[in-house]
Structure formats: C-alpha cells, structure tokens
Amino acid sequence: MNDIPWIEIIVGLVVAAGGGASLAYLLPRARRRSRTPGEGGPDTRAGSGTGTIEAERPEVEEAAPEVTGPASGTLVAEPELERPEPVAGRMVRLRDRLARSGSPLGARLLAVLSRDSLTEDDWDEMEELLLLADVGAGPTADLLGALRTRVRVLGVGEPAAVRTLLREELVKLVDPALDRSLRTTGPTTDDGTPLPAVMLVVGVNGTGKTTTVGKLARVLVAEGRSVVLGAADTFRAAAADQLQTWGARVGVPTVRSDRDGADPASVAFEAVTRGRDEKVDVVLVDTAGRLQNKAGLMDELGKIVRVSSKVVAPSEVLLVLDATTGQNGLTQARVFGEVAGVTGIVLTKLDGTAKGGIVVQVQRELGVPVKLVGLGEGPDDLAPFDAEQFVDGILG
Ligand SMILES: Nc1nc2c(ncn2[C@@H]2O[C@H](COP(=O)(O)OP(=O)(O)OP(=O)(O)O)[C@@H](O)[C@H]2O)c(=O)[nH]1
C-alpha cells in the first residue's frame, strides 16, 4: 500500500471526477429537460417523460429515444441539403401519370359516351366501368342518373359536349367543396403560446406511410416550415432508418428509439415534446403498419394518439390508403376512423391503378376528405388533392 505513489492516487481521483461528469450528462435527463426551451443548442437526446403521463407510459423504463439529424450537434460534415420541389403545380406535373394509370376508365367511358345513340347496353357498360374503378354502387347510380337526364334533356350528342357533361358529373362526385387543407398550424396554449401542429400518419402495412411522411416533410420544408419527425414505427427495424434518411435529405431531425420494439407511444411522446420545446411548426409521426382487425395493435394506436395528445393534441391524423387495394380501403378507413379519429386520407400508388374511384367512396361514407395523393416513388411525387385536376387526370 505504501508503494502506491501519491501522484497516482491524485491522478486517479481526477479521472474519476471526470467520469462522474460524463455520467451526469447521461443520467439526470429530467434535470436537463428543465432547460429553458431554445436556450443554448438543441438537446441532442430527447429526455424521458415529464411525469405527467404516468398512466400511459410504458411500465418498463424506456431508454430515451435518440434525436438524429442536423440538430444533433455532432461534428459531422453536413451533406448538401436537397431543395424540394414547390408544391404549387405538382398535380399538373403528375396528371400525365394519373392519365396513364386511369386511362382505362376515362378513355373507355368517353368511348361509350361518344356513340351515336346510347342504348341500355351502353349505360350498363358504363356502370360496369365505374364499378370496376371502385366508384361504388351508390355514387355510380347517382352519376349515371344525372348523366342520363342531362344527355336526354340537352340532346347532347357530339363527343366534346358529352365529355364536358361527364367531367362535370365526376367533379361533383369527387366534391370540390370539401375542405382539403392540411392543418399545419397547431393550437395555442391558454397564454397564447403557439404549439406545433402534430400530424400522425397511420394505416395498414405497406401502404406507403413512411414514404408519405418523408414526402410530406419535403412539402412542409418547401413551404418554409420547421419540422421534427417521430419514428414511432418501432416494429419494422428499417423504418426508423428509412425515415431518418428522408429527413436528413432536407435538414429535418428525427426522434427515434435505439431499440427495436420500443414503446411507440413513448417515441411519439418524445417527438411531440421536442417539437413543443423547440417551437417547431410541425411534428410528423410515422406509425407502424397494422391490420385493422388486430385488436391489440389498434389499442396500441389508440394509446399513441392519447399519449401524444397529453403534450399537444394532433391537428391531423392522416390515414394512408393504397389505391390499388380498392374496396378493402373502405373497411380500413372505418376502423382507423373509430380508433384514431382520422381527419384526412392520403391515397398512395394512384400512379399504378385505375381504381381511383375509392376517393369517392371513402369521402362519401366517412365524410373524411382525401387531402393528398401519392403518384410515384419519387421524393416529390406527393400532391395536394384537387378534385378538378384529379378528374382531368382520369379523363386523360
Ligand atoms: N408507385 C408508388 N409507390 C409508392 C407510393 N407511395 C409509396 N410507395 C412505395 O410503397 C412501398 C412501401 O412504402 P413504405 O413507405 O415503406 O410503406 P409503409 O406503410 O411505411 O410500410 P410498413 O411500415 O411496413 O407498414 C415502397 O416501395 C414505396 O416506395 C406511390 O405513391 N406510388
């Protein structure tokens, strides 16, 4: 013992004190969170809960989700950020794609309507075409009824005039009067402090949720909004990486867990908390795909909504529907609507199907408007839905 030089003991004490300091950085998350929002640099590790949502928090102590992206403060050279395409005019750019995918409906309807005098067989053929495009029995009957009357009353025969009538009736069916604006402005607290608009993105597996969140982040960045992403899809291992890559391309940070299978409500909570604390405009939360008939998973979704709402109530719950799945989308929309309070539909993969008629059915049966459409896999292939342009697209 006497052989230990005093200088080594002193050095040892100094090193231990240094180690204590770095541990202090890792441990008392609650204390670090009490920092005034906006003070100093952004907190690169979102902390755990504030203690106000104990009943909803996972019983097991969760590791705090990580925050990645440009706000992390690491000394990594920033990749050059992409400049997303402006939102205005996107649907026009993508209309050709819609025309190509929807042409069987538009072109064939027009072909029938251009016949010299329309027989009962012609009307039956049109009914079949509309049903095949998933317009649904009720809306199809309404459209054909109105069209028949107008063709007869007006004595319309020439193709251009018939096309105009068909266009008008289709637009009516898709309902241009619906409010399709995205609520990108959040609520305010009682003292008038603005809170972020929280958008949750939900739906069954593989419909394009993560891609949509990524594309939507670009839309918001293009409009000058600040955004935080929340990777609450903790079920699919690659989903958080996928989301983070989307965000990094446009300089948007991602809150994620470093552990697969972490409680998604916890990640959503942290993302919304970070968005609030850093006063960002919009928090976009991606959730795992889930079948609407799996009660446990739907309960989990309900919990994500409730837990996020403890910080800021969602401004939008967007249901992502794959247009190619047609009628099945209707059942999904009903159940998700009940569990998560869906406020808008994103219809993806419209570039790959002639079944765009589901737009009409979903809106009519659920009273929820289609707000966005996905028309390709490209980063800017997401457009605000516009009834007239949509109809022009399918009429070619
Ligand atoms: N053609 C086309 N493909 C799309 C569109 N939107 C998404 N996709 C593709 O659909 C596939 C699934 O997309 P994801 O975003 O991973 O789907 P997800 O819903 O997050 O999947 P889960 O998390 O497994 O439920 C990917 O290959 C996307 O590129 C679209 O509008 N058009």
UniProtKB/TrEMBL annotation:
The keyword Heme does not apply. The keyword Protein transport does not apply. Its main location: membrane. It is found in: Cell membrane; Cytoplasm. It catalyses: GTP + H2O = GDP + phosphate + H(+). Residues 77-176 form the Importin N-terminal domain. Residues 32-83 are annotated as: Disordered. Keywords: Cell membrane, Cytoplasm, GTP-binding, Hydrolase, Membrane, Nucleotide-binding, Receptor, Transmembrane, Transmembrane helix. Its EC number is 3.6.5.4. PROSITE patterns: IMPORTIN_B_NT, SRP54. GO terms for biological process: intracellular protein transport; SRP-dependent cotranslational protein targeting to membrane. The chain crosses the membrane at residues 6-27. InterPro entries: AAA+_ATPase (IPR003593), Importin-beta_N (IPR001494), P-loop_NTPase (IPR027417), Signal_recog_particl_SRP54_hlx (IPR013822), SR_rcpt_FtsY (IPR004390), SRP/SRP_N (IPR036225), SRP54_GTPase_dom (IPR000897), SRP54_N_sf (IPR042101). GTP binds at residues 203-210, 286-290, 348-351. It is an enzyme of class 3 (hydrolase). It is a peripheral membrane protein. GO terms for molecular function: GTP binding; GTPase activity; signal recognition particle binding; small GTPase binding. GO terms for cellular component: cytoplasm; plasma membrane. Involved in targeting and insertion of nascent membrane proteins into the cytoplasmic membrane. Acts as a receptor for the complex formed by the signal recognition particle (SRP) and the ribosome-nascent chain (RNC). Belongs to the GTP-binding SRP family. FtsY subfamily. HAMAP family: FtsY (MF_00920). Part of the signal recognition particle protein translocation system, which is composed of SRP and FtsY. This is Signal recognition particle receptor FtsY. It comes from Antribacter soli. The gene is ftsY.
